[in-house]
Amino acid sequence: QVEVAESGGGLVQAGDSLRLSCVFFGQTFSLYVMGWFRQAPGEERELVAQITPGGSTYEADSVKGRFTLSRDHAKNTVYLQMNSLKPEDTAIYYCAAKHRSTSIYEHWGQGTQVTVSS
């Protein structure tokens, strides 16, 4: 049974940095693609970034150059480093996991709130 748990959200000012963490439990971490999604009020959930077991990353255009995703296989943890935060980054951020053989994210965390004030 795969579980993921996020932490690290909070209230920051525009231009600040924040690091989100997501711990993975229950299966072999190195077989899973890990992703970060976000959902702002009234908006659909969107993929922010994802990282493959081998470390290849994807970042959405809206965060490219500001957000960096990494994973630590020794700690079964992925990190989303968010720099130069903007008010439009305000959202609930969700960590998710999918087996490398599947196309759908099946395992989701509860989410962590990130609020960026102007």
Task: Provide a descriptive summary of the structure in words.
It is built from no helices and 11 strands. The chain has 118 residues and is mostly beta strands. Strands 2, 4, 5, 6, 9, 10 and 11 form a 7-stranded mixed sheet that branches. A 4-stranded antiparallel sheet has the order 1-3-8-7, with no helix packed on it. It is globular.
Number of helices: 0
Q: How many beta-strand elements?
A: 11
Please compute the radius of gyration using only Cα atoms: 13 Å
Shape, principal axes of CA atoms: globular
Q: Helix coverage percent of residues?
A: under 10%
Question: Span from first to last CA?
Answer: 41 Å
The run of helices and strands is: EEEEEEEEEEE
Provide mean pLDDT, rounded.
97
The portion of residues forming beta strands comes to: over 45%
What low-confidence regions span 5 or more consecutive residues with pLDDT below 50?
none
Main β-sheet: number of strands, strand sense, barrel status?
7 strands, mixed
Report the structural category: mainly beta
Question: Could you list some keywords that capture this structure?
Answer:
118 residues, mainly beta, 4-stranded antiparallel β-sheet, 11 strands, globular
